[in-house]
Design brief:
The protein has 92 residues and is an all-alpha fold. The chain has a single domain, classed as Up-down Bundle (Methane Monooxygenase Hydroxylase, Chain G, domain 1). The chain has three helices and no strands. Helix 1 runs antiparallel to helix 2 and helix 2 runs antiparallel to helix 3.
Length: 92
Amino acid sequence: MPNIASQIRQLRTDKKRTENNKNIRTRVKTDIKKAEGLIKAGKIEDAQKAVAEAVSQLDKAGVKKVLHKNNASRRKGRLVAKLAAAQKTASK
């Protein structure tokens, strides 16, 4: 436990920030899993909406620096690629 007043205040803000970042990260993971589940189930129209929501959450997390922007971009790319592959197989 810090003894210095400024460090005590910093510890409080760190806890708040950590909790907020955890909520954002959890939301991103949930949205990605939901989208991937719909893709695997073959529900393409629902999956498109879920992917759009997941991409939006990833963008927000990247802008807020909860995730590194390249990490968010990589996750978006992989998710969209899965959707594109599912659409391709569904259209055949």
